[in-house]
Amino acid sequence: MLEEAGHRVIAVDLPGHGIDHTPLTEVNLKSYTDCLSAVLDKESEKVILIGHSMAGVVISQTAEYFPEKIEKLVYLCAFLPDNGQSLFDAFGIVDLGDDAPTAVYIDEAQTYIGLNDEAIYSHFYADCSEEDFQYAKSKLVKEPLIPSVTPVQVTEERFGSVPRVYIEGLRDKAIPIKLQRAMYAKMPCEQVITMDTDHSSFYSHPEELSVNLLSLA
User: Fold this and answer.
1) Start and end of every AB hydrolase-1 domain (predicted)?
2) 81 close to 159: Cβ distance less than 8 angstroms
């Protein structure tokens, strides 16, 4: 839909995700930022960089390295960490009570993050069609733990110089709306867009999401 509107779109498979089969034990936050930085390095124009969920951490740290390459950062139901804060640290900034997510588990060796099968639909794809849910579920992988416990190191001079937009999902159970709002209250964005959606609006409400993204271009 974005391409039909005249934009060029690059969807990135981070190491250990999608078609990239880098072993979990070899992946850290730098692996992610190196991958994304390599994409940015090839671009002659500034990009609008969108991070969903965990990738909010990745786009924040990458913006510290390449602020001159990024026109705008868009956090789509994403983690928005403060300097010195990891993804997991973000859960400590607000008491979620009964809304605390239950989909994620960490293996005994503390090497990867997995998902409890019975909670995947309700936490990530509650508004999706059965077809989209099954497709999305087939793409899920175990994620290395290290990137999620590594604090970001960002400065106001570099990361802070890039405009930020947050797109919140009111019915997100993976990153509950209470946590989303606590994060962007602590790390203010120039604009907040509200969608009455689950965690994965690119599957469940693609037309509405595309309209919102096009409004930022």
Assistant:
1) 5-209
2) no
Residues in the chain: 217
Q: What is the pLDDT of residues 160-211, one digit of tens each?
A: 999 999 999 999 999 999 999 999 999 999 999 999 999 999 999 999 999 9
Q: How far is CA 164 from CA 49, 86, 125, 186, in A?
A: 10, 18, 25, 13
Task: Give the span between the Cα atoms of 35 and 110, in whole angstroms.
Answer: 24
CA 15, chain centre distance (Å): 15
Query: Which of the 8 DSSP states describes residue 137?
Result: H
Q: What is the CATH number of the domain that holds 166?
A: 3.40.50.1820
3: in domain: no
Which residue(s) pair with 104 in the sheet? 115
Domain residue limits at 119 = 24-214
CB 74 within 8 Å of CB 49: yes
What span, in angstroms and rounded, lies between the C-alpha atoms of 108 and 194?
A: 37
Give the integer Cα–Cα distance in Å for 126 and 196: 12
Average pLDDT on 40-66 reads: 97
The DSSP annotation for 152-167 comes to P---TTTGGGS-EEEE
